[in-house]
Model the fold of this input.
Amino acid sequence: MSVRILLLSALAFGGTALAAEPPPGDPLAALVKDPLHSVAPGCVIGVFDDGRPQAIAASGFADIAARRRLDADTVFYAASISKQFTVLAVAQLAQAGALSLDDEVRLHLPELPAWADGITVSMLFHHTSGVRDWITLMRMAGMDPAAPGAKQEALRLLALQQRTDFAPGTALAYSNGGYLLLAEIVERVSGKPFAGYAAERILAPLGMRDSYFLDGADPAGDNLAHGYAPVGDGFEIRDGYPRFGGSGGLMLSMNDLARYEYDIAHGHRVWTPAIRRIMLQPGALADGSPALYGADAMPYAGGLAVGPRKGRGFVQHTGSAEGFRHVYARLPDDGLSVAVLCNRADWVTQDKLDAVIEHLRPGLLTVPDARAVSGIYRSPELPARYVLQAEGDDLRLEIVADRSPAAGTRQLLRRAAEGGFGNASLTLLADPDGRGITVRAGRTSAIHFERVAE
Done:
């Protein structure tokens, strides 16, 4: 790879990552440069080839008032990118025999109400527990999730609930509440504060010297990024994020993320083969169907979405909190990883990531052509044919019931930027090999159809 942006050098386990200023006209930095404001927040991009840092590009300011620019050592609030670190902590304890992923959560948190019966640790991993989202509950109660003491209030609110949102194991619903409980389990089993455990067992062994989990106090340091939101012709600070770990809470720099990425590919001090299996194991519902997450309908594993996206295999997670938007993705089959950390609320980092990949490897990501998806499909789970016909970039779906073929229904599925087709009630994703489709509708997460002869 010949791209030269903020090159990292001397990076190995425990080594030092050094960043130089980007050259004029840096093409990667241009992808995250604000076209309207000369002084604005922005993003840091990290590019990794087979786990080794190839380039880092930065554009924008970490602190607009102080005119301090973003760089590879800027520390961001990582938001939900933190979740994979929470799972790492639990996975380590499981490998040590201190707990089992099949343990019911009340074994470790006996004070939870009866709604927790039947919920396992792995269900918390995969968002299939039905545990309600603590951030949503706090806002519904008129409380600030970023206020002092919010962790105790969040746990109290969870304990006040009389039921889960659905029977455990029967659906997937993204829940920060489940990940708050995972952090509590780490504390009970290890006998250490979650932030202390993560520092000792994950961050320090990887040399992630600038990164840490918040533990009730405001973040500290000279290289913090403020989060920003556009207001009028400028930007206002938005730093209202929770000050504790579990569902979020990690403070992270791109240089430290490079050390983490290196361990996944080569170091294996934390990402051991056994840990990798836990982290990348996709979740499943009680009926055996995959636990699918997000617009791309990717299986959800250990704090990571894993599976096909735009024709390639992805392992990724996004992060969002007030003035921060992030995405960190690995494409294992292509030996490529890209992270985009942004301190502004108005940019879609998934689009930025796709633009970086297109710049680096043109044509690598593909979106199925409507004509290629056209055809007839059947599923053993439904007594009906799905007939798809291209209408420009979109698809016309006709559902023909076996018992009453004359009474079929027709609807238009618009092509989506994520690579699928859909409308307000139904989403359709084509298999990468073109042999089938996966359909989601309402509370039904995934029914797979195979292409059949016309």
Notes: The chain is about 25% helix and 25% strand. Confidence is low (pLDDT under 50) at residues 1-21. Residues 176-190 form the longest helix (15 residues). The domain at 1-366 is CATH 3.40.710.10 (Beta-lactamase).
